[in-house]
Amino acid sequence: MSRLMQALLLGLTLGLAAAPVVADPPAILLAQVYRHQVDVSLYLVSEKLDGVRAIWDGQSLRFRSGKAISAPGWFIEGLPKRALDGELWMGRGSFERLSGLVRRGMPNDAEWHQVRYMIFELPQADGSFEQRAKQIREVVRQASVPWLMAIEQFRVRDDSELQKRMNEVVKGGGEGLMLHRADAPYETGRSDTLLKMKPWDDAEAVVIAHLPGKGKNAGVMGALRVRTDDGREFSLGTGFTDQQRQNPPPIGAIVTYRYRDFTRSGLPRFASFLRVREE
Known about the structure:
Blueprint: H1 3-14, E1 29-33, E2 43-48, E3 52-56, E4 61-62, H2 73-77, E5 84-89, H3 95-102, H4 109-112, E6 116-121, H5 129-143, E7 148-150, H6 159-171, E8 176-181, E9 189-197, E10 201-212, E11 221-227, E12 233-236, H7 242-246, E13 254-259, E14 272-276
Parallel strand pairs: 1-9, 6-7
Antiparallel strand pairs: 2-8, 3-4, 3-5, 5-6, 8-9, 10-11, 10-13, 11-12, 13-14
């Protein structure tokens, strides 16, 4: 028997976690930025949760990259045998704790009891989004487990009411709002069917270098050098905790940054590190 086979058998005997299985990235709907370009009365609105996108295919729970999420058996067994799309969430302001939890190879059972799977879409389901939102509530009701929940959807009359709801969410510690066109059939890709509204813009870039710190940051990472999909390069020097400066995101990691607008040269203005994108 080979050493590899012996190691695999030993791992099974001891109950060790197998290496995460990676499938092809699932086709999902991605949001555009809300810039007052639509009639908001045609949309259903919900809070934008600061969680981890998770896609359930009826058998396995995965990140948007296709990598399997190591959730406890009881969490998986309570989910219905149909596709779901949503966010793993632990409440406002808890992203860092959630991120650390869901990335572990061996799930922490006690902490997973604090996680909710917040559903906002039924992949490949028929009907309009408004009809699918009703189906989501019924799916959650039939599952009857406390960790599966439907994200509340509501309507607004106009931009003024939308902004009021936005202000309430942000004041309460929320991230922003999502707008999903009520009459839209299910679709994937980036579309005005789904819009995100936040007090700042955000985008993603890949880490290409670690720049050394100076002054109070001497001896640790001072900034990340990053590159966007269209080849623009710039540095992110703010938004990091002391721990993140000591252990910065690795070269090749995809990070999310926030910014206000663009400079004349097309670079993001006041760019600040937000988080490492989940697998």
